[in-house]
Amino acid sequence: MSGTAFRFGAERSYPLAHAGPDPRFTESLVTSVTAVLVGYGYPRLAAVDDCAALESALVAFLYNPKEQ
């Protein structure tokens, strides 16, 4: 990532502990992330499968998997 400096040894903020449904994770969040991607020149998400894949990627980044 050009122009981004990462501090070695810095404690990570993500993934978050998964403690059940998160009211912040909404369709509006996914729509906002989509808008940012489009703003950077990526194609719009037209297919339902693309939206589902983006949602899955966000969940994977944001949250630790539930402990079994």
What is the alpha-carbon Rg in Å?
Answer: 14 Å
Instruction: Count all strands and give the number.
Output: 0
Distance between the termini: 35 Å
Shape: globular
Give a nutshell description of this structure.
It is built from 2 helices and no strands.
Task: Give the SSE map.
Layout: H1 27-39, H2 48-62
Description of the structure:
With 68 residues, the chain is mostly helical. It is built from two helices and no strands. It has helices spanning 27-39, 48-62. The longest helix has 15 residues, at 48-62. The relative contact order is 0.21. The model has no long low-confidence stretch (mean pLDDT 86).
Features:
about 70 residues, mainly alpha, 2 helices
